[in-house]
Amino acid sequence: MKFRIKKINSAKPVPYWYRIICHFEKKGYIANGLTIPFLIGARPTIEPGQSLLSVEELVHEVSQYGATIMRCGYLDEYVLGSLDQETEAISEYYKKFDKLVVTDDSFSDKKSIDEVEIFLEAIYRPVISANYYSKENGEWRDFSEREFNCLKELQ
Length: 155
Known about the structure:
- With 155 residues, the chain is α+β, with helices and mostly antiparallel strands.
- It contains 7 helices and 7 strands.
- Helix content is 40%, strand content 16%.
- Strands 1-3-2-5-4 form a 5-stranded mixed beta sheet.
């Protein structure tokens, strides 16, 4: 499978979080996607001088740009992945919030992107407030040296 960075509007740059997802997928670092705290915490490495997005801001941006979301069984967390052509082609069979495609039964009780944003904000705001961005062995923590080096590949 080829991973391509898509551009919805050539005048608009590809969001930093989408570049991270595509890079990590292409390199084989991830299988299903990256957690919301990971993508939020990675911003200063990818875009020095820029402030962290809130969970609500990230999820809103993702819903406008396009990506997938699912519950990762390994991490027991929600992860965002790239919206590849195969998934986009069958996206009519999945629940969608604008351009955010839910590839499992997560959010079946949510009726709007606002409800999804509020739900995810409640889960991940405390994690991010503690400066934890990565989860390993069931515990949230800061980035590992390996993860930080993988992010620096995008600089």
